[in-house]
Specification:
Layout: H1 6-38, E1 41-43, E2 49-57, E3 65-68, E4 71-76, E5 79-84, E6 86-93, E7 100-106, E8 111-114, E9 126-132, E10 139-141, E11 147-152, E12 155-163, E13 172-175, E14 190-197, E15 203-210, E16 213-220, E17 228-229, H2 230-234, E18 241-245, E19 248-256, E20 261-266, E21 269-277, E22 279-285, E23 289-294, E24 302-309, E25 312-320, E26 325-332, E27 335-342, E28 347-352, H3 354-360, E29 370-373, E30 379-382, E31 388-393, E32 396-401, E33 406-411, E34 424-425, E35 430-435, E36 438-443, E37 450-454, E38 462-463, E39 469-475, E40 484-490
Parallel strand pairs: 2-8
Antiparallel strand pairs: 1-2, 2-5, 3-4, 3-6, 6-7, 9-40, 10-11, 11-12, 12-13, 14-15, 15-16, 16-17, 18-19, 19-20, 20-21, 22-23, 23-24, 24-25, 26-27, 27-28, 28-29, 30-31, 31-32, 32-33, 34-35, 35-36, 36-37, 38-39, 39-40
């Protein structure tokens, strides 16, 4: 029998061994090829090995045609494009819309996401929503961008409230009860300023300044009769500064500049409880994370910036002792970022996970991931998605991108119209300002500058929840010289509405 023949058995084992070896070699080659492909390696048109990168592109609205170095490609936006490592000019186009363009650098084996391009219509259609005989002293939009309140110039305690989900619907009136307010002395003046919105989109903390004093009012826009004079409830002293704790309408931080004490309190327990000492200025995040400038243990003419978290203090850096201080903090992709500086230092330091740095460092020092520089900055803000940090003074800007770890410093060529002290974020990726009576929008790095519609620099622009409509307050015109018109502008062409 063949299977008992030793010679044939050896031959069969030899054949099997060669077969298994070839299979192993094939698997190894396939693994190496897949690994190289995963790292972006491929063959160019001339047969040379090149390394590619992936670029994801999407637009609002979509789809749009993608041009690479002036040539259209088959793929549309909302797709990924594989490009050899190198520099490229990208242009995104859609009929009826203005082009979006920028230069990018593609590195091999990297993935870049450009999911923020916004295409504005070439022709903008604007229609009036409502005209006020006198320009409202104050306009407020809720964090969810649904509710817009404009103050009545003839009765400062009364607001017209618009539902931007249905802007053509008649506005409702929100009036602060007289019993909640302290009236100014006879012949005196008064004004209101926004302090904060609660994240419930219902409650608004206003600072009410009047001849003879100042107080904080918490408005319930859905039930104005439930509005509260927080200053009275908490028995705050003159000069004490109030802010929301964790953006909850009934929980507060209170800074007493005279004693440099930061207190906590809530409407259920009106007793002020000391929280931190030697506090000059502060910014909070959540319930128990506070970034503050302190007069404790500092060099001459310096203030110490400390991060207080989970009951512990973490000194980060000394800055100029003279206010104004620039402090802010938030989380991006689950990591805490802090930005801190003083206007007199002409720079703001950005830290990524400062507590982790301090705990890991043998010298107990934190190192900034970047330093933003502007002459005498007077404004600091994170974008709504927390990816970008901007500091500004007039036309001077410096922006840090936490995603790419890059900095962009530029001066806009147009002056900001009087009435606005700084630009404001349109969304997570774009800034807006008013120049020459027109609203100007540009990407975080001052690319894709677009001039849109007439706007009053005293008011921020307002966008609906899906950024399909822009609302502005603009001068009403010759017939109502002292008035203002709330206008609605579609950000979609008729074909896309």
């Amino acid at each position: 029998m063949d299977f008992l023949d030793p010679q044939k058995q050896r031959k069969q084992r030899y054949i099997f061994g060669i077969g298994y070896a070839l299979i192993a070699v094939a698997i190894l080659i396939a693994t190496v090829i897949l690994l190289y492909l995963a790292y972006g390696f491929g063959f160019g048109k001339n047969g040379q090995i090149i390394q590619n990168g992936l670029v994801f592109l999407s637009t609002q609205p979509s789809p749009a045609t993608i041009y690479v170095n002036g040539e259209p490609i088959k793929k549309k936006t909302d797709s990924r494009v594989q490009l050899p490592a190198g520099d490229y000019d990208i242009k995104l186009t859609r009929p009826g819309y203005r082009d979006w363009e920028r230069s990018i650098t593609v590195d091999g084996a990297t993935v870049q996401h450009f999911d923020y391009p916004f295409l504005f219509p070439i022709s903008l259609t604007t229609s009036p929503v409502h005209t006020e005989q006198n320009a409202p002293p104050l306009a407020l939009q809720s964090p969810d961008r649904r509710w817009l309140l404009t103050e009545n110039a003839a009765n400062l305690a009364s607001f017209a409230m618009y539902d931007l989900n249905n802007p053509q619907q008649a506005s409702t009136v929100v009036t602060i009860p007289d019993s909640v307010l302290t009236k100014p002395d006879a012949g005196g003046t008064e004004s209101y300023q926004l302090s904060e919105w609660s994240t419930d989109n219902k409650h608004i903390l206003l600072s009410h300044t009047f001849t003879g004093g100042q107080e904080y009012i918490m408005i319930d826009r859905t039930a104005p009769q439930n509005s509260v004079n927080v200053t009275r409830q908490l028995k705050l002293a003159a000069g004490q500064v109030l802010s929301l704790r964790n953006k909850q309408f009934d929980h507060y931080f209170i800074l007493d500049p005279a004693s440099q004490t930061l207190y906590t309190a809530d409407l259920g327990n009106v007793t002020l409880t000391p929280y931190l000492q030697k506090v000059l200025a502060f910014k909070s995040y959540g319930s128990d994370t506070v970034l503050y400038a302190s007069s404790q243990d500092v060099d001459a003419n310096k203030s110490q910036v400390i991060l207080h978290q989970n009951g512990n203090d973490f000194p980060i850096r000394q800055i100029d002792a003279q206010p104004p201080y620039l402090l802010d903090l938030t989380k991006y992709n689950g990591t805490l970022y802090t930005a801190l500086g003083a206007s007199g230092d002409n720079e703001v330091y950005v830290y990524q996970d400062p507590v982790g740095q301090l705990q890991r460092s043998p010298t107990h020092t934190a190192v900034p991931v970047n330093v933003l520089r502007v002459t005498s900055p007077n404004y600091l803000s994170f974008s709504s998605n927390a990816q970008f940090i901007v500091i500004e003074n007039g036309p001077q800007f410096s922006v840090y991108d936490a995603e790419s770890d890059k900095k962009f410093t530029y001066t806009v060529p147009t002056n900001l119209d009087a009435g606005q002290s700084h630009a404001v974020w349109m969304d997570g990726d774009r800034l807006t300002l008013v120049s020459g009576g027109k609203l100007v929008v540009f990407d975080y790095d001052h690319t894709n500058v677009q001039t849109l519609v007439a706007a009053d620099p005293h008011y921020a622009p307002f966008f609906d929840r899906n950024y399909k409509f822009l609302y502005t307050l603009a001068p009403a015109g010759a017939k109502t010289p002292a008035g203002a018109t709330l206008t609605s502008t579609s950000l979609l062409t008729k074909q896309d509405q």
